[in-house]
Amino acid sequence: MASLEERGEVGVAAAPGSSGVVGVALEAVPGGAGLSGIPEEAVLRREAPGTDTDAPPKKRARQQEGEAGKLEERLYSVLCCTVCLDLPKASVYQCTNGHLMCAGCFIHLLADSRLKEEQATCPNCRCEISKSLCCRNLAVEKAVSELPSDCPYCVKQFPRSSLERHQGEECQDRVTQCKYVRIGCPWQGPYHELPAHEAECCHPGKTGQELMGILSEMDQQHRRELGLYSSIFNLLCFEKIGFTEVQFRPYRTDDFITRLYYETPRFTVLNQTWVLKARVNDSERNPNLSCKRTLSFQLILKSKLSAALECHFLLLKGPYDDVKIKPVIQHHVFSNDSNETEYVPLPISDSVECNKLLAAKNINLRLFIFQIQK
């Protein structure tokens, strides 16, 4: 009887002593391609108990002499993202045909499809992709985490899973600051040079007057942060406070060039009916062509008023979202003649967070309104 190797098949089985893995014979693709496009030579062959271990060595899968690249380099080309062609740094998603995408590129593709009003497709095979159709590939994520990567400081190689800890705690060439940075020392350099610098640093010998000028500049930033928190605490003392979870749903304008915008259903807060609207890049003509993306929103009062209504309001992330929003307090005096606020930026941290919101089916946030009593 012909062996598996003679029939063009490669045996893959668990090593003795391992659990939960069953030996499977994988038929090689004509032309020498194996599983998922990996060459047969790159498949590590292990013999399970009971298989023929006396086959001649020349019949075993092995790398031919002169083949370029180490195993790690070949795995880089197999496991890289099909969009950016780089190894994923976090989550890895795959389409229904198995093509890999890093989390950033996957979210960016979904956001682009939302802006263009098109179905998102895999850039490799053009099959449809979405959060429901695609899934994470945990095996690839673990494989990538074990691949070696160069430390940018000492240029030594470490597994990607331990590289972050090495850069932050162990590397002697990592960039660090002087411990006197709080009194204005600007020095930055390799960690192994830190003791010599601190021994000669001139900042501890500065006069009190010189240090006061440095510290006053640093205190200004802290005052701005404390001012924001103090304002929020003051608002919590108001007599009338209302909040609700709001859901922005995507819509299209009826213009000749349709644009994406978001709007919430009507909701009631403080016995008044409201609506929130949002738009991308302040209604830029083609926001899909821009790498920098922002969202702005406005609050609209739908109820009729008998007297002016002065309010503070702010948007925060919802209870089930992970978007990063920095709170900003807005102010407006509502009346029957002025029932809409100006469009104000949604205080998300960067374009990556904006793409997360655009890629989602709906945007879920939490709105707080504080009524100022006359």
In short:
This protein has helices at 71-79, 103-116, 138-146, 160-170, 194-200, 208-235, 351-359; strands at residues 9-12, 24-27, 92-94, 100-102, 135-136, 148-150, 157-159, 175-177, 188-190, 240-252, 260-263, 267-269, 272-280, 295-301, 309-317, 330-334, 344-345, 363-371.
Chart the SSEs and their pairings.
Layout: E1 9-12, E2 24-27, H1 71-79, E3 92-94, E4 100-102, H2 103-116, E5 135-136, H3 138-146, E6 148-150, E7 157-159, H4 160-170, E8 175-177, E9 188-190, H5 194-200, H6 208-235, E10 240-252, E11 260-263, E12 267-269, E13 272-280, E14 295-301, E15 309-317, E16 330-334, E17 344-345, H7 351-359, E18 363-371
Antiparallel strand pairs: 1-2, 3-4, 3-5, 6-7, 8-9, 10-11, 10-18, 11-13, 12-13, 13-14, 14-17, 15-16, 15-18
Can you offer a commentary on this structure?
23% of the residues lie in helices and 24% in strands. The protein has 374 residues and is of the alpha+beta class. Strands 10, 11, 12, 13, 14, 15, 16, 17 and 18 form a nine-stranded antiparallel beta sheet that branches. α2 (103-116) crosses α7 (351-359). Residues 1-68 have low confidence and may be disordered.
